[in-house]
Specification:
The structure is a single chain. The protein is an alpha/beta fold. The termini are far apart. It is globular and about 55 Å long. Helix 8 links the parallel strand 4 and strand 5. The strands form 2 sheets. A 5-stranded parallel beta sheet has the order 2-1-3-4-5, with helices on both faces. Strands 7-6-8-9-10 form a 5-stranded parallel beta sheet, with helices on both faces.
């Protein structure tokens, strides 16, 4: 994928993916210090939103907080379910790129009406309905996205939440942030094997498996929006605990950063048992066919995500669809109309 060939450059989706590196270059982690100062007293952070505004941003934060052993509990649910919880002892964030997502706006209204205080907001737009319901709304620097599939905004939202954790830990991630844009540009423009693209383009269902940190799940959603193909997210080892009964040989499973301990079982159940192809996206060679990416250490999830974007663009082009115009999906899935 690149911006020098018309077949890529004509799509807003590709342009916005390629803008992600500059979004990171402009990102200022100091903006979340105010949140980090509030959190020690509460000790609990609740992140809500819908679709891409929640999946990777929130679940990456949860995994990082647990991995680092922070004295902080991070939770996430969709807005409708979150509205049923007692969140009075938590700091709450409501994320909506448009600032008009119905479920999120109504949740913020309900939280305020309950007397538990207004939540924080996170949006790509100013002066929105969501902003009116929040005590403070942080505005993303990525700007509006024209493509239906959210991309650069997802990465900035994720960095925003993760930077809260950096500030709590008191660590300086400047070196990692400086290196990350170049790595993302590398994986966004690296060639994807034509054999892999053909295999996925002809698959009945494209599966993504891996850690519950939002990467595989977000790529599953993007598969629907970008390639118009059926997809499913298989958390952890779900791929070898029953779903093999309905898998088909022409299906393909992309495993993000496969766990070494599970490789043998995946081979036994999926490769030998079902007869399908398993492909890894990883920063090392694996026993599977591997889309190899450079290592970014703690920032690996961002690299894996962007490598997945590159793959999905190639699949979409191979099937001859318009990447910018899904037939039914909308930019704001459920808009609040007042």
């Amino acid at each position: 994928m690149n911006l020098t060939e018309t077949r890529y450059a004509k799509y807003a989706l590709v342009q916005e993916m390629m803008q992600t590196a500059d979004v990171i270059r402009r990102f200022n982690p100091r903006q979340t210090r105010i949140i980090a100062l509030d959190l020690p007293s509460a000790g609990k952070l609740f992140l809500t939103g819908e679709g891409s505004s929640r999946v990777f941003p929130a679940k990456n934060a949860i995994r990082k907080a647990l991995t680092w052993g922070l004295d902080l509990s991070v939770f996430t649910e969709g807005s409708r379910q979150a509205a049923q919880y007692d969140l009075s002892e938590m700091i709450v964030f409501c994320a909506s790129n448009s600032g008009r997502t119905k479920e999120v706006v109504q949740f913020a209204k309900k939280l305020t009406a309950s007397g538990n205080g207004k939540p924080y907001g996170l949006s790509a737009n100013q002066e929105t309905l969501l902003e009116k319901e929040c005590k403070k709304t942080f505005i993303l620097n990525c700007g509006r996205e024209q493509a239906v599939a959210a991309t650069k905004s997802v990465v900035e939202q994720t960095l925003f939440y993760e930077s809260i954790l950096w500030n709590i830990r008191g660590i300086d991630m400047a070196a990692e942030l400086k290196r990350l844009p170049g790595l993302l540009e590398e994986v966004l423009t690296m060639p994807i094997s034509k054999d892999i693209v053909k295999l996925a383009a002809n698959a009945s269902t494209i599966y993504f498996a891996g850690y519950n940190d939002g990467v595989a799940e977000e790529l599953t959603l993007k598969t629907n929006e970008i390639t118009r193909k059926k997809s499913d997210y298989l958390e952890g080892t779900y791929a070898v605990h029953g779903i093999e009964e309905v898998m088909e040989k022409q299906d393909v499973v992309f495993v993000i950063d496969p766990m070494d301990e599970e490789v043998e079982k995946f081979q036994e159940v999926l490769t030998k048992g079902v007869g399908l192809t398993v492909i890894a996206i990883a920063d090392r060679e694996t026993p599977f066919t591997t889309i190899r990416v450079p290592s970014a250490g703690e920032m690996n999830p961002y690299v894996f995500l962007c490598a997945g974007w590159n793959l999905l663009v190639e699949i979409g082009l191979a099937t001859g669809i318009n990447l910018d115009k899904p037939e039914r999906a909308r930019k704001v899935g459920n808009e609040f109309m007042g």
